[in-house]
Amino acid sequence: MLKQSTDPYIRNDRESELAAMAERLADRFAERSAKHDREGSFPFDHFGDLKQAGYLKLTVPAELGGDEISLYELVLLQDRLAYGDGSTALAVGWHIGLVMHLNATGKWPRALYEQLCKDIVSDGIVFNSFASEPASGSPSRGGKPETTAVRTEGGWLITGRKTFSTASPIVDRFVVSAYVPEEERVSEFLVFKGKGVSIEETWNTLGMRATGSHDVVLDHVFVSSDARIDAQIPEGREDAGGWLLHIPACYIGIARAARDFALDFAGSYRPNSLSGSIAELPTVQQSIGQMEAELRIARNFLYSTADRYDRQTQHKEQMRPDLGLAKYAATNAAIRVVDIAMRIVGGASLSKTLPLERYYRDVRAGLHNPPMENNIMQLLAVNALSERNI
């Protein structure tokens, strides 16, 4: 970890305390992460630690018993948590990010949102939203869900399959998108895990192996009428997806862990052909400088974007291009940093007994998290063209 006294992204005592909490958790997670990665097992033990530390309620509004952290603080925490285990950070990031998103937009009926928050605070429940499907792919691509909602007495019967359902082994309730045939439109429904809900353990991937992103199967699952959420964001409360910065923060944290591993290796590895360590070699120092440049540029942009988002009280939708660019810059920088770290360490970097090869696999998953790279490029292009009235 970076010494907090030298970390330029910690600006005050509150942030220092939050960072210290995340770093304690990360140190604990680092001791177990290799086992979960090897087994592809879900880190229930990590989530137990998160619950005990109060991490699950960080974005719950203060009046509902939470800490109501800012987006900047969320980035600060996720960056540090992923240093210890990327899978855990990404999985819990969806939970705390969505709670922040729902509060910012007011898209849920207030009573429903307040009950969710109270259950998070009192019981430590975990929440997520599942939208991806085998046929429609990522919801960001605009595909119509094959999951259906059919009206029945007192509510709806939901049937379908959701893929990439992160943290599915531990979620207590989740939102699903479903097509309503009688209305010929898509709606969202809040589903509680219970009768008719099953998990097929399909998640067996190259990286982020411990996120528990299995398939969730819904077989005529009943949800009450008041659990239908026709999300209408009130005017002026669009958040432009700021909460999704939990994703690039996670990959930056993994990249920092890879950087530090490479630095420690370079400082301690002393082949008998040299009088000192390889850290003294100009070629190795050039590689270290390249890693540092990539990390500093990406982190500066990520943190400054989060800070500007917090300070911009109106027209947050104008920040959408920069929010997407922060994800693009951080994710691609993380991939480059880990690649350089592996070149410094050499053949040993491929060893399953060392964490570097896991970092290499994990950061590549960022390419497939939203927002997608081609969507970001198109948004930037449209923005640039509009500035020239083209």
UniProtKB/TrEMBL annotation:
GO molecular-function terms, A-Z: oxidoreductase activity
Transmembrane segments: none
Domain Acyl-CoA dehydrogenase/oxidase N-terminal as annotated: residue spans: 14-104
Acyl-CoA dehydrogenase/oxidase C-terminal domain residues: 248-365
Top-level division of the source organism's lineage: Bacteria
Domain Acyl-CoA oxidase/dehydrogenase middle: 131-221
Keyword line: FAD, Flavoprotein, Oxidoreductase
Record has Flavoprotein as a keyword: yes
SUPFAM superfamilies the record matches: Acyl-CoA dehydrogenase C-terminal domain-like, Acyl-CoA dehydrogenase NM domain-like
Cofactor(s) the protein needs: FAD
EC number: 1.-.-.-
Family (UniProt): Belongs to the acyl-CoA dehydrogenase family.
Protein name (database record): Acyl-CoA dehydrogenase family protein
Organism of derivation: Marinicrinis lubricantis
